[in-house]
Amino acid sequence: MKVLAAMSGGVDSAVAAARAVDAGHEVVGVHLALSRMPGTLRTGSRGCCTIEDSRDAHMVAGLLGIPFYVWDFSERFKEDVVDDFIAEYANGRTPNPCMRCNEKIKFAALLDRAIALGFDAVATGHYAEIRPSAEGTPELHRGADLNKDQSYVLGVLTPDQLDHCLFPIGASASKADVRAEATRRGFPVADKPDSYDICFIPDGDTKAWLSDKIPMRPGLIQDEAGEALGEHDGAMTFTVGQRKGLRIERPAADGRPRYVLGVDPQENTVTVGPQEALAVDELEGIRTTWAGPAPADMGRSEEAGIDCEVQIRAHSDPVPARAWLGEVRTEVPAAEAAPLGPVVPRPRPAGQVLRVAVEEPLHGVAPGQTMVIYRGTRVLGQATIDVSRSRARAS
Amino acid sequence: MRAYFDHAATSPLTDEVLGTYTDELRRIGNASSQHAEGQAARVRLESARRRLAQAVGAEPAQVVFTSGGTEADNLAVKGIHAARLAQDPRRTRVLVSTIEHHAILESAEHLESRGATIEWLEVDRAGRVDPQVVADVIARDPETVSLVSVMLANNEIGTVQPIARIAQIAHAHDIPVHTDAVQALGQVPVDFATLGVDALSITAHKVGGPVGVGALVLSRTLAPVPVLHGGGQERSVRSGTLDVAGAAAFAHAAERATARLTDGTTARMAALRDRLAAGLLDTVPDAVLTGGDLDGDIDGLPARLPGNVHVVLPGCEGASLLFLLDAAGFATSTGSACQAGVARPSHVLLACGFDEEQSRSAQRFTLGPETTQQQVDALLAALPEAVERSRQAGLVGAGGAR
Question: What is the value of ipTM here, to two decimals?
Answer without folding.
Answer: 0.88
